[in-house]
Amino acid sequence: MTANLRYVTTSFSLSGRFDGKIGMPLAVHPDSGKRVGLPIMSDARHATLEAQAADAAVKHLQVKAPIGRDAVRQIVDFESQVYTAQADHPVAGSFDAPGTPPALGPQALAKGRAILAGFNYNAPVFFQFDDWRTPKAGETPEQAAFRASVARGYDVFFLRPMWISDVAWFNSIGMGNPYKRTCAICHSVHLTGNDISPGVMDIGVNMPATSTIDRPDLPVFRIRCDKDAPGHPYLGRDFLTHDPGRALITGKCFDAGSLVMQQLRAMSSRAPYFSNGSAKDIAAVVDFYDRRFNMQMTTTEKTDLANFLSVL
Fold first, then answer.
1. Highest-confidence range of 32-36, 122-126, 148-152, 188-192, by mean pLDDT?
2. Using CA atoms, how far apart are residues 12 and 140, in angstroms rounded to an integer?
């Protein structure tokens, strides 16, 4: 979505120059000379908002001539000051009210610090939800119960480990397979929950062999890789996919199915989910991860995690 882009258009890495996942240099912004990541479009075809705006003007708006640098800068300046997040909830109430967890509501995005790694206790990705853990004066029983569920859901998101396995561009590049971490290891950009390092990976949602969601209505393509090229790290050189993903941009078989992780804000307004729309609601998203990585969440944990995601 075209919002909160201040948080997703500059990449963080330990050195400031390299992709922390694969150790390769980050792309260079042609104007500023600063290193940038790839978290803008789902297939990572553009590394900067400037490049995306110029390309969209030609291909979508079909302008007669490429727009100039000044027009591109005006577009990017406008996009960079737009913020969105859920502002209230029918049960939890307004997120402008005193005692609301500090990450909730659009004001949190407008005031927050951009490009900060949030998978640690020093600066957790969505701060903390302690204000909602216990009932407060003036809350209805329903409101208190829902707020407490959201707080527990954040604990599932930030603290509950799972064994992440067979994810191309995560397990396949030296992270270990499987790799025991929480949701926040990838959904880590402060206040937005996209990936702190260029977030191109294949979690399996586009692959019939690994997806836990049955979508017979989606097209299926067979990919056969060149015998001399590296194949998909977990599916080999002959496999089926609903969406080749970044492979359509790079032409590389090992990129098949890989897409850029998107931010989690305003999820309640953006169903269906995943790039192919295969999850009809947030509960289906939670169920996908539970089954894909054998998390073995209880019914309560699933509800709590879905409630947490529903207020972002």
1. 148-152
2. 42
Residue 178: cis peptide before it, omega within 30 degrees of 0? yes
Range of the domain at 282: 87-312
Same domain for 123 and 72: no
User: Residue 37 class from Cβ within 10 Å (0-12 exposed, 13-18 middle, 19+ buried)?
Assistant: buried
Q: How large is the C-alpha radius of gyration of the chain?
A: 20
The pTM score is: 0.92
Tell me if 167 sits within 8 A of 233, measured CB to CB. Answer: no
pLDDT of the residue at 114: 78
How many structural domains comprise the chain?
2
Domain boundary among 34, 58, 79: 79
Q: What is the DSSP string of the chain?
A: --SSGGGTSS---SSSSB-TTT-PBPEE-TTT--EE-S-SSTT---SSHHHHHHHHHHHTS--SSPPPHHHHHHHHHHHTT------EETTTEETTSTT--TT-SHHHHHHSPSS-B-SSSSS-TT---GGGSS--TT--HHHHHHHHHHHHHHHHHHH--EEE-S-BTTGGGTT-SSEEE-GGGTS-BTTT-S-SS--EEB-STT-TTT-SS--TTS--EEEE--TTS--BTTTBTEEEES--TTHHHH--GGGTT-EEPPP-TTGGGS-SBSTT--B-SHHHHHHHHHHHTT----HHHHHHHHHHHTT-
Q: Is the per-residue pLDDT at 12 higher than 60? A: no
